[in-house]
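>> Question from a student workshop board

For tomorrow's exercise we were told to take the sequence and the ligand below, predict the bound structure, and bring the output to class. My setup keeps failing. Could a helper post the expected result so I can at least see what it should look like? The ligand is iron/sulfur cluster.
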Amino acid sequence: MQQKLYKLLHEYYGNVNLHFEVEKVLKEARRSIDYNNPFKNLVITILSQNTSDANAARAYLSLERVIGELSPRKVFATRLEKIKRAIKVCGLYNSKARTIKNLAKYIVENYDSDLSRLIKMPAEQARSELLKIPGIGEKTADVFLGYVMGHDVAPIDTHIRRVSQRLGLVRSGAKYSEIQEALKHSFPRGKLLRGHELLIRLGRDFCKAKSPKCSECPVRSVCKFARESSIS
Ligand code: SF4
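>> Workshop helper replied:
Here is what the output should look like for this input. Compare the format with yours to find the bug.
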């Protein structure tokens, strides 16, 4: 399954940038997001929870329009209500605004507003540090490890959870760590982050929550759900 799943996904999607929805929003607004900036990366990841990439990017740009270029100190000094109003477009704005404020507060108070010390830590230590911040979960911490710190890691979101179960990589109700472990055996070494992107794309394009488009899906030949539904 390892080489086959990755091969099928890679054959279908190739090397295309799978963040094209964000790119489109940024291009239209003639703006950019510095994903390598640790604080900005965490903010966009929080905004992207349970919404489309496009709406997360719109919320991010709106927040920058309201308070200027994002920094922990600036966000910490901004009233919660103002943040809520700015990010409304991405949904769940009450809890997301609180998490962003908590994040800024934590970084100002514990890291003197600068995460460069954290990104020099070993991966597990940095992950534990991030998980101490109220509202920061495993997925956000792993996105940080992958995109900011350059580690080979697969953050698990709702799309990946659903697709992994249907493919038969994990049992129904599998824990976050079990899914990560299964993906380590399903993608070649060094390709976990790309595997994460590919599975999210597959979930959005074919393996939709309500009605999966199995007959058109590029990985149906290795899928347990399709096999059991006699679609492969
Ligand atoms: S074949 Fe169907 S269930 Fe399997 S991954 Fe594709 S869309 Fe999802």
